[in-house]
Amino acid sequence: MNAVRLLALALTLAPLAALAQSGGPADLVVVRQGQDLVAFAHNRLGGPVEVELSATELSGMSADAVLPLRRVLPANQTVPLLRLTPSASGGRHALQLDATPGEPHRVARDVVYSLPVDEVRFELGQGFHGGFSHQDEANRFAVDLIVAEGTPVLAARNGVVMQATSGFREGGTDPSLADRANQVRVLHEDGSMALYAHLQEGAVYVRPGDKVTLGQVIGRAGSTGYSTGPHLHFAVQLNGGMRLVSIPFRMIGPDGYLPLRQ
Q1: pTM
Q2: Which pLDDT does position 127 carry in this prediction?
Q3: Which CATH class is domain 4-101?
């Protein structure tokens, strides 16, 4: 759920047309143009992504920009970032791309979020600063709403779908499952993003680029990823500058405001 690190390693003298590394919010693609190499970043999401390109190795080559460099990529766009020119004897490079969803340093409005589960009977599990898995910066102000498997998950606010993952089926308390939760990320008009996670396999009903409205069914609750049982993990996040930061929020249910702090 945090920034994803991608590595691209290559010898400039190798018979290489293009080198691509993918997975996560953005892909790094290195293409040969004559004797030069040009590094492109491709945004995979239906909303903006901030990327940082750096080099863990750069020898015998000149670059047309100072590294590290950061750019914000519009939704679904491919942008050239860097041109490398080898010396007469050739050179080596090892480029690294980090990517974080959202535009950096946006300021979220004080919005009251609607209950994102279609269930009068639900249990508030972990709240803000929950001791099991809500200690990192991206999830410190997340809440877990315990509901039955298959409970409809509703959009808590209007927005545009940035990311939708539905292919994972396994869940449990093995930390290696942390990045294997089905989820939906929705971008709001103020630049904040809502994360709906641990959704059922095959029960994500939206795609990147879709507009969603308050109360719309976007999926069904499950227990995929790092999870002790069926629930919805909900967080509001901002891009704090190449890192996801969760922020406090207010949420209203059938009996009024939910006590989100633990």
Answers
A1: 0.88
A2: 75
A3: mainly beta
